[in-house]
Amino acid sequence: MWNVMGIFGIYIMFFRELIPESWPVDITVMPSSIEIKMGEDCKALSFPPEVMVVPPSCRGLQYVPGDGLHMRLLFQADLNTKSLPAVGESLKPKKRCTFYCQSCGESIISNQTFLRVLPLPSEDWNDLVDEWCCHPNPFNNSILQPQNGDCFLGPNYFLVNSGTESACSGSEILNTDSQGAASKSSDSALNSKANSRIICKRCKTLLGEIMLSGATKYYFTELLVQPSEENFTLAPRSAHIQRTLAHALTELSSTRSTFRFSIQGTDGATYILIWLLNSDTFLVESAGNMASSNVFTLLEFGMSSDSRPSEIWKAVKLLYHPCIKSRNKELIDAWGNDAGVRTLTFPSHTCLEMLLILSQSNISLPPSLRWMNSFQVAFLKM
């Protein structure tokens, strides 16, 4: 939960259904709502009780072909914005938790208690030791290996000791030999750690993999973590992926000053190039059906005649390039040779889902806001 007090922000609103043929139109701006009258038809856009409009701030009223009617407003917010916790934030030492497959809800690891939950350093930490030490690297070729009861958190995955597999009842190991043939096994991870992947027994979704060191790596996008004493609730897939990716991007940008990211699949292919712009965006959306929304403001603003209150969320704004089907190959090579670009790896099917989510966000924007330079624009809700 993000506590935000006294926020002031400029919102750009688009009323798509207001075309010149429907004029004249009367627009009344009030502290808690906006009323739009077209003849005898009157519709109201209500804001959350924590959000107040500054009525005299209405300016920039203009009609843009293809977008609709534009209007700029100044908002004042005194609110607790909804920002659901990331998967890693749900993992606490000495607290019993259960891992579920995010796709189907199957219990993967039941009633697991970790004695230590620690963040991992950057993946190139060992390369920097020479700069820290005045003598030969004492950690040369060392690997951060979780012991029994350990859970190490990466930006988009976590590592556990292979012994944790003994508590695993909802997954199985898929072994791939050098010829590409696959076989399934329920034996210990130590007996099948090379080129092994972990899949859900029920839906066969890729959940993680067995590292060559023997540690088990799970992707945050594929699992839900809840305290064992709480009832399980399966979150919508799209919302879970958005939240996981947004948290990874913002965490890396704040701790390592990284704003450009290459999203790669477990197959080694690059799917998306992302440039993070803003991590302090607020998304206000209607409690009604967004599919029929004709009003947009910094992501979407639903307008309905029943004046139901809206909800406000924290979101991130980003630019992206899709890279499937050999698109943007030169840019992929350039970013791949840039030390300022961070690579994040996810299961390949999840990368395609991410690209679909970004595309849906982009197409929901008015045409004038869908592109910035050569990049496409999208938002992710946290």
UniProtKB/TrEMBL annotation:
The protein's Enzyme Commission number: 2.3.2.26
Classification via InterPro entries: UBQ-conj_enz_E2-bd_prot (IPR019193)
Coiled coil regions, renumbered to chain: none
One GO molecular-function entry: cyclin binding
One Gene Ontology term from the biological process aspect of the record: protein monoubiquitination
GO cellular component: cytosol; nucleus; ubiquitin ligase complex
One Pfam entry name: HECT_2
Reaction it catalyzes: S-ubiquitinyl-[E2 ubiquitin-conjugating enzyme]-L-cysteine + [acceptor protein]-L-lysine = [E2 ubiquitin-conjugating enzyme]-L-cysteine + N(6)-ubiquitinyl-[acceptor protein]-L-lysine
Record function comment: E3 ubiquitin-protein ligase which accepts ubiquitin from specific E2 ubiquitin-conjugating enzymes, and transfers it to substrates, generally promoting their degradation by the proteasome. Independently of its E3 ubiquitin-protein ligase activity, acts as an inhibitor of CPSF3 endonuclease activity by blocking CPSF3 active site.
Assembly: Interacts with UBE2C/UbcH10 (E2 ubiquitin-conjugating enzyme). In vitro, interacts with cyclin-B.
Protein name: E3 ubiquitin-protein ligase E3D
Organism: Phrynocephalus forsythii
Biological classification of the source: Eukaryota, Metazoa, Chordata, Craniata, Vertebrata
